[in-house]
Amino acid sequence: MSLGSLDADLEKVFETSVQLIQRGVPHVILFDWAGAMGIFPNHYAVVVGYNREGGRRELVINPGWGYDFQVLDMSDPAVAPASLVWIERILDPPDDIPGFQTAFSAHGMWTTDEAGQVQLRPVLRLHNDPRSTVRWPTSSRVQFLVSDVDDLALVTWDPAEP
C-alpha cells in the first residue's frame, strides 16, 4: 500500500482535494480551525464533496462522531494549517507470500446471509460513553477491496423499507 499526503497552503490543499474527489479517491483532511497548532484540535475528517460556486472554496466534510456534514471554508485563514492523507494504491501480495493472522477491527462482526454472502453487522461504541455500544443492522452489500483481506472492504446499507 502507498499513501499520498500533502501539507501545503489552503488553496493547494483545496485544489488537491477537489482532484481526489473527481478521481473517486477517498481522503481525509486535518485542519487547525484556529486551534493555534495545538494537538489535533479538529482531528481528521473525511472529505465527501466540494463547492466552487461563485468563487467559493468549500469542502464538505464528515467530522465523525455522529455529527452532521459540515462545510469547511478553505479561504478562512483559521483553517490553516491543513493537510490531506489518502490511499494512493493497494496491491495484492504475491500468492506465494503468506500474510499474517490477527484479530482485526471487525472481529466477530461478520455474518453470512441466507444467500451465503458475507455481510457486516458492526458494533459501535458511543463517543460520549465508550462502555456503551450500539449494534447496527446487517449490511446490504460488501465488496472486499483486496483479496483474502477481511478488514478492508466497501460496505453499504440500503435504506430500510418503510
Q: In terms of topology, how is this protein built?
A:
Blueprint: E1 2-8, H1 10-23, E2 27-31, E3 44-51, E4 58-62, E5 70-73, E6 82-89, E7 110-112, E8 118-120, E9 123-126, E10 129-135, E11 141-144, E12 153-156
Antiparallel strand pairs: 1-6, 2-3, 2-6, 3-4, 4-5, 7-8, 9-10, 11-12
What's this entry about, in short?
The chain has 1 helix and 12 strands. The protein is mainly beta and 162 residues long.
CATH class of the largest domain: Alpha Beta
Whole-number average pLDDT? 78
Tally of separate helices: 1
Termini separation: 41 Å
What composes the largest sheet? Answer: 6 strands, antiparallel
Can you give a write-up of this model?
With about 160 residues, the protein is mostly beta strands. The protein has 2 domains: about 1-90, Cathepsin B, Chain A (Alpha-Beta Complex), CATH 3.90.70; about 110-155, no CATH class. About 10% of the residues lie in helices and about 40% in strands. The chain contains 1 helix and 12 strands. It has one helix at about 10-25, and strands at about 1-10, 25-30, 45-50, 60, 70-75, 80-90, 110, 120, 125, 130-135, 140-145, 155. It has a 6-stranded antiparallel sheet with strand order 1-6-2-3-4-5, covered by helices on one side. Strands 7-8 form a two-stranded antiparallel sheet. Strands 9-10 form a two-stranded antiparallel ribbon. A hairpin with an 8-residue loop joins strand 11 (about 140-145) and strand 12 (about 155). The longest helix has 14 residues, at about 10-25. It is globular. The N and C termini lie far apart (about 40 Å).
